[in-house]
Amino acid sequence: MKKIILAFALLLAGVSSSFAQFEKGKYYIGAGLNGADISYDATNKFSFGAEADLGYMIERDWLIIGDAGVKLTDSTLRNFYVGAKGRYYIEQNGIFLQAGAKFLHEDYGTSYNDFQITPEVGYCFFLSHYVAVEPSIYYDMSLSNFSDRSRFGLKIGLACYF
Length: 162
Hints:
Blueprint: H1 2-18, E1 27-34, E2 48-59, E3 62-73, E4 76-90, E5 95-107, E6 111-123, E7 125-126, E8 131-142, H2 146-149, E9 151-161
Antiparallel strand pairs: 1-2, 1-9, 2-3, 3-4, 4-5, 5-6, 6-8, 7-8, 8-9
């Protein structure tokens, strides 16, 4: 019984200390793998991507993020993008809601530029006081060719809050 109470107390302390990372003035650095053979659209079928994020907590639970990423298809660099996102953390359960916009350049024999809006929902699971694993699902909505260039995918990221 003592072990159960001690484990519960440690869990409660860990969860409450992780919320301190969502305070105004904190910085965020993230890296992620997206669409790891799971994203799908009509143009490139299955693909694999990686991204890097830098962010700043402008208010408690509100994070702004600048990001850049690449996507590989058939082991060839097919596209890259730059964008900005806004994220809101629901502290009670670790879920975050995110929306972003990005400029995308693709090259599948012919070059193609696109502007996309990306809603996303994910979960922030802290491994330590500063490091978190962030799985999420996203939907890239193309503004130029919605039916063929929009894509749904899964992403897993590793983030540092300081």
